[in-house]
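RECORD TYPE: inverse folding
INPUT: structure tokens
STRUCTURE:
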């Protein structure tokens, strides 16, 4: 097991009728921004519940955060925060809204010339407004971590940052609010969470059996409960299990003492930047391709994964590892998520652009052990044409 430091200060309120518990964690008299996306919080009743609970606060609403939150929209919110002296951000919705809240919170107190440098130049965040979330869509795990991913429309980029200052103060997790989600969004949530676990689990052995089994527990739960929630988002128990699995997939616990990869995400972000493909669907494209491109390097953990998650016990080592990849693809596609670039009208020219971008950014040895070179990126994507 590798050395690690673990810290997670997020208070979680999970289940029904939880919004009423948030008041003690917001300073009296604080001006609040209620941040949301396309307006689902009006349809599922979450906005009315939040408004009632916060009736003694001054609340400014800011909507329109995109599924891939844009720098441009975030900076508009920063302008409102500064103009109205807002001191707290409450993000209501899915991971995109929470990601936006994190960047807005950091950008509002940024003292440099351009807050985009937090993402593009990795300028450390030294302060951020306090923020919290009300989660209505299980997927990213952003409700219980310090990470965020932001897109910039003007340059066609999608980049990530993380800071100890952007942990939510609290997060309210509402499975019942996800009851009316479209199946597409539920499927995206299952696959997003699944690949989050794989990025931390399917690397190489480091004698960390507890972490492996914790990761496998999340994967098995997603395999069992994800299809139930996909078939019927109003199945409260299935949605609750999916939501908590997605939170556990990326709250830092699974990464303790083990190597992470994250090159699947780095490649997938470029597919979103160039083609607007849903984040989870980019992961479903890239993950099997990267495994194939790094087959020998990933084989030992692929065999373990195949045995423990898919009960693959017969055949040679190569056959077992290959079967694990195929079962993963089958799982993604059973949720209506296609796994080929051609399914999204992307082809060789897209691969050229992604490889060129990796080279221009000097992203030459990414992933665990620095295995994901621009050449490996090309091979992984070509295998998914």
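DESIGNED SEQUENCE:
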């Amino acid at each position: 097991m590798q050395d690690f430091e673990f810290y997670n200060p997020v208070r979680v309120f999970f289940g029904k009728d939880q919004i009423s518990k948030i008041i003690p964690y917001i300073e009296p008299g604080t001006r609040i921004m209620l941040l949301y996306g396309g307006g689902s919080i009006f349809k599922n009743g979450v906005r009315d519940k939040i408004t009632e609970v916060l009736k003694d606060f001054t609340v400014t609403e800011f909507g329109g955060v995109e599924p891939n939150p844009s720098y441009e929209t975030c900076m508009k919110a920063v302008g409102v925060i500064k103009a109205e002296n807002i001191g707290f951000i409450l993000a209501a919705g899915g991971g995109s809204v929470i990601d936006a809240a994190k960047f807005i919170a950091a950008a509002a107190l940024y003292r440099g010339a351009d807050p985009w440098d937090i993402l593009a130049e990795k300028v450390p965040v030294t302060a951020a407004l306090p923020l919290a979330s009300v989660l209505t869509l299980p997927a990213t795990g952003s409700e219980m971590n310090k990470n965020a991913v932001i897109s910039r429309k003007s340059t066609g980029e999608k980049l990530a940052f993380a800071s100890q200052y952007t942990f939510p103060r609290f997060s309210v997790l509402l499975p019942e609010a996800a009851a009316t989600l479209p199946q597409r969004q539920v499927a995206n949530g299952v696959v997003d969470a699944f690949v989050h676990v794989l990025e931390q689990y399917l690397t190489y052995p480091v004698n960390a059996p507890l972490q492996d089994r914790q990761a496998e527990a999340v994967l098995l739960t997603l395999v069992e409960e994800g299809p139930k929630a996909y078939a019927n988002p109003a199945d409260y128990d299935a949605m609750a299990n999916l939501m908590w699995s997605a939170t556990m997939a990326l709250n830092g616990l699974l990464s303790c003492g083990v190597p992470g990869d994250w090159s699947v995400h780095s490649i997938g972000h470029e597919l979103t930047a160039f083609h607007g493909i849903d984040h989870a669907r980019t992961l479903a494209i890239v993950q099997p391709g990267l495994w194939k491109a790094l087959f020998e390097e990933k084989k030992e953990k692929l065999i373990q994964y195949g045995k423990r998650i898919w009960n693959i016990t017969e055949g040679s080592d190569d056959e077992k590892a290959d079967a694990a990849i195929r079962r993963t693809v089958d799982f993604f596609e059973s949720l209506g998520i296609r796994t080929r670039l051609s399914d999204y009208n992307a082809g060789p020219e897209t691969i050229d652009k992604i490889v060129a971008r990796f080279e221009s950014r000097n992203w030459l040895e990414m992933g665990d052990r620095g295995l994901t070179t621009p050449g490996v990126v090309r091979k992984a994507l070509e295998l998914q044409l």
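NOTES: The chain has 14 helices and eight strands.
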